[in-house]
């Protein structure tokens, strides 16, 4: 449950899961997403960093745990990318579209870009996990 590889992978995977969205939404695409937000919606300025950090650690741990059992024979970078893309499609595209259909916080284009961002983020996380589990 708490193997050395899983603990190391969890903390390493925390980095892209926590910091890439922060960089993307706060700096790289801030103006774009501001234009994609629908009126009368909170702009997310008041973030709660403790719950955000805790959920990112949990997500990194779950990602590492599932990846560890994904393909025990080969922890290669292409397998890490494929795993990350699948998780990104489930999380970014799947759950993102559910949120789009129920909360109407962003436009369809904004939600599409958000889904693509999460697929890329989890592909990078898969690369990190594959490198750490391969060693």
Question: What is the strand and helix layout of this fold?
Answer:
Blueprint: H1 4-28, H2 30-36, H3 49-70, H4 77-103, H5 108-134
Helix pairs in contact: 1-3, 1-5, 3-5, 4-5
Briefly note the structural class of the backbone: mainly alpha
DSSP, total strands: 0
Tell the overall outline.
elongated
Could you tell me the radius of gyration in angstroms? 16 Å
Give the number of helices.
5
Characterize the main sheet.
Answer: none
Which band does the percent of strand residues land in? Answer: under 5%
Order of helix and strand elements from N to C terminus: HHHHH
Question: How would you characterize this protein structure?
Answer:
The mean pLDDT is 87. The protein has helices at 4-28, 30-36, 49-70, 77-103, 108-134. It has 135 residues and is mainly alpha-helical. The protein starts with a helix and ends with a helix. The chain has 5 helices and no strands. The protein has one domain (4-34, 47-134). It is elongated.
Keywords, please?
single chain, 135 residues
In short:
The protein is an all-alpha fold and 135 residues long.
